[in-house]
């Protein structure tokens, strides 16, 4: 298993920028896996994607992986650093999936992560710090992402919380809960 890094935090906190910095510092070829589904009719979304693209070095390989993340990760070369941005978007792409199928998807993902020899950096949105979502789909998203991120943190060598432009290394600052 390569090095696994998890970066989480709220929207517009600097998560992606921190992940990009760590990927650049890896001194390996970087593969950027974007999980977003492109929607050419959503101009604001296109603008966000363009901002991310403009920040990345030209020599990084970009792959669009909205759903086949496990399969794609399983095929990366061991001498690379893979940056996946973001797990929240990946989870959103599966919200229609039944719970039992989602649990299989998550287990396949975690099993794959443990087998990949490349370094992996995952960006995940932090949810659940505010009010309980008013709609079932919002609660489903929050619960699925929260559970996924917690499980991924267990097999990560480093976990960062990025908020207001500051990265905190939770691996050194925090104490894992029992059962993690």
Automatic annotation (TrEMBL):
Reactions accelerated catalytically: adenosylcob(III)inamide + ATP = adenosylcob(III)inamide phosphate + ADP + H(+); adenosylcob(III)inamide + GTP = adenosylcob(III)inamide phosphate + GDP + H(+); adenosylcob(III)inamide phosphate + GTP + H(+) = adenosylcob(III)inamide-GDP + diphosphate
EC number(s) per entry: 2.7.1.156, 2.7.7.62
Keyword Lyase: no
Pfam families given in the database record: CobU (PF02283)
Active-site residues per Swiss-Prot or TrEMBL entry: 52 (gmp-histidine intermediate)
GO annotation, biological process: cobalamin biosynthetic process
Family: Belongs to the CobU/CobP family.
Task of the protein: Catalyzes ATP-dependent phosphorylation of adenosylcobinamide and addition of GMP to adenosylcobinamide phosphate.
Protein name, as recorded: Adenosylcobinamide kinase
Lineage, uppermost ranks: Bacteria, Bacillati, Cyanobacteriota, Cyanophyceae, Nostocales
């Amino acid at each position: 298993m390569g090095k696994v890094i998890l970066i989480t935090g709220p929207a517009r906190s600097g998560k992606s920028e921190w992940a990009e910095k760590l990927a650049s510092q890896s001194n390996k070829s970087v593969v950027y896996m974007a999980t977003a589904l492109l929607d050419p009719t959503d101009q604001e979304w296109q603008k966000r994607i363009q901002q991310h693209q403009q920040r990345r070095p030209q020599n990084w390989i970009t792959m669009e992986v909205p759903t086949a993340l496990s399969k794609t990760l399983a095929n990366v070369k061991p001498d690379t650093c893979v940056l996946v941005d973001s797990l929240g978007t990946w989870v959103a792409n599966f919200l229609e999936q039944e719970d039992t199928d989602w649990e299989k998807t998550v287990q396949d993902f975690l099993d794959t992560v443990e087998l990949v020899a490349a370094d992996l950096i995952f960006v995940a949105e932090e949810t659940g710090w505010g009010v309980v979502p008013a709609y079932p789909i919002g609660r489903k998203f929050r619960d699925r992402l929260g559970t996924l991120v917690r499980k991924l943190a267990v097999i990560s060598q480093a976990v960062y919380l990025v908020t207001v432009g500051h990265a905190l290394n939770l691996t050194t600052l925090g104490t894992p809960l029992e059962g993690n």
